[in-house]
Amino acid sequence: MTTNGKMEYTGSNYKGDYKNGRMEGTGTYDFPTETRYEGELKDGMFHGKGTLFFPNGSKYVATWEEGSALEGKYTFSDGLPYEEENWEYCDGYDRRFYTETCNGLKPAGLSQLTNRIPPRDIPEGCYDCGDGFYNPKSRVVVDYNHKFLRNADDDEHSWIIKKCRKGWDEYVGYKKGKTSA
């Protein structure tokens, strides 16, 4: 029996097979977080082969048993497969972005600033911290749609200021008229 059911209390949605009133067979389960599971289910749980699709475009393909993943493979939104062993992407020896690894380096003057092409436009006075924009004055991180994510603590604030891309240009180095002591 295949039906479409809205889970009123959880904000989820399921479209697929049922057995004895429970999700069983194959189906698609939409979480309220915009994550989606497509695959096999048994007794209301992920069971068999199935894939979790995340809102950022990444996915996790796995073999499930009673709701737990036995083994699986995570792939980032840009197509980079995560390797638990022998991970060579963006390590201490090779700092290239995945798109540079696949497509080669850009010519001088067109250096790649992020793995995303083109890079996101960062609001003036903010930083791109990887999952959204950070405003150091308000110490708030918002997602890329400008929805509140979290308040940054002192450690995250320091890390973002030191490591993340800024939404403005800064001139560094020699400035005419300046002398060093």
Automatic annotation (TrEMBL):
Pfam families associated with the record:
MORN
Q: Which organism is it from?
A: Mizuhopecten yessoensis (Japanese scallop)
The question of whether Repeat is a record keyword is answered with yes
Q: Which UniProt keywords apply?
A: Cell projection, Cilium, Flagellum, Repeat
The record lists the membrane-crossing segments as: none
Q: What is this protein called?
A: MORN repeat-containing protein 5
Compartments it resides in: Cell projection, Cilium, Flagellum
Q: Name one GO cellular component term.
A: motile cilium
Statement: the UniProt record of this protein carries the keyword Repeat: yes
InterPro entries named in the record: MORN (IPR003409), Morn5 (IPR042814)
Q: What is its main location?
A: other
